[in-house]
């Protein structure tokens, strides 16, 4: 199936994890794909890598402009770059709150701002934001991270309303616990990472973590013409976690 033949996509945080799986899936289905990342050195053809820091407006604007020039337009933006944070409201200083909001929320705003003038020229314009079940699930020890994803969720709804009449759809995916290098790093920091992984898996209703490819599949659906009448919605990819 070549759902994305002729379409041009940009994926932030596309050098690792969910972003990488998404970039690879879109490319395999026929899209031309630009990856924006802090470190795009591992990005291989047919993907095109662009160095950008989503906390730096100039770097985002320059990378988006370069990608649009190279691809010859822009139809799909996957706003995915994000970082984690652990703790309660008592654990993180103001500077840490500002740093994580800068990446997880403002990073998506900057990318959307740079991309929207190009998306308005597309007959198939869509933005998919990587949110999280943390936006709505009330997870312990995730106050800061959850607040950033709550903001991403609200931002998705507001952007969908703002841009629907311009022909730009905006949706988000809400992954559960996904087996990516990020989660690998968290497990590695535990005293017994194998035992920690087993414990984490046993807390999943499915008995396993969600794969990055499964999140990529949901993003691809929301990015494809198959979901052409869907905007302002979120799609859970959490192995049933939210139903608990
Ligand atoms: P990851 O660490 O494997 O990949 C994140 C990528 O983002 C990396 O390539 C990194 O270089 C890039 N990045 C980070 N900061 C950046 C910046 N300032 N500018 C540009 N690029 C930057 O993480 P992942 O698990 O694939 O997570 C991707 C997204 O999925 C994040 O938004 C995260 O919040 C969300 N998410 C992850 C999980 C999970 O369990 N892994 C669950 C729910 C949501």
TrEMBL record:
Oxidoreductase keyword on record: yes
Keyword Oxidoreductase belongs to the record: yes
Origin superkingdom: Bacteria
Gene Ontology terms, MF aspect: oxidoreductase activity
Keywords: Oxidoreductase
One Pfam family matching this protein: adh_short_C2
Family as reported in the entry's similarity comment: Belongs to the short-chain dehydrogenases/reductases (SDR) family.
Name assigned to this protein: Oxidoreductase
Lineage: Bacteria, Bacillati, Actinomycetota, Actinomycetes, Kitasatosporales
């Amino acid at each position: 199936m070549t759902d994305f033949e002729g379409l041009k996509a940009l994926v932030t945080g596309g050098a690792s994890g969910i972003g990488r799986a998404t970039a690879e899936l879109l490319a395999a289905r026929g899209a031309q794909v630009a990856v924006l990342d802090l470190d795009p050195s591992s990005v291989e053809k047919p993907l095109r890598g662009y160095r950008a820091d989503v906390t730096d407006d100039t770097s985002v604007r320059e990378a988006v402009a370069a990608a649009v020039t190279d691809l010859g337009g822009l139809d799909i933006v996957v706003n995915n770059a994000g970082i984690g944070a652990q703790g309660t409201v008592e654990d993180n200083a103001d500077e840490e709150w500002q740093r994580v909001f800068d990446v997880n929320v403002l990073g998506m705003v900057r990318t959307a701002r740079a991309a929207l003038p190009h998306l308005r020229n597309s007959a198939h314009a869509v933005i998919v934001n990587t949110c999280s079940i943390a936006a709505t699930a009330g997870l312990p020890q995730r106050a800061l991270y959850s607040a950033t994803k709550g903001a991403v969720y609200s931002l998705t709804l507001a952007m969908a309303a703002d841009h629907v009449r311009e022909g730009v759809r905006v949706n988000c995916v809400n992954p559960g616990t996904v087996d990516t290098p990020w989660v690998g790093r968290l497990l590695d920091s535990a005293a017994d990472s194998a035992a920690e992984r087993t414990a984490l898996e046993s807390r999943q209703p499915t008995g396993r973590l969600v794969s990055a490819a499964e999140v990529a599949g949901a993003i691809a659906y929301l990015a494809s013409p198959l979901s052409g009448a869907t905007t302002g919605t979120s799609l859970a990819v959490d192995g049933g976690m939210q139903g608990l």
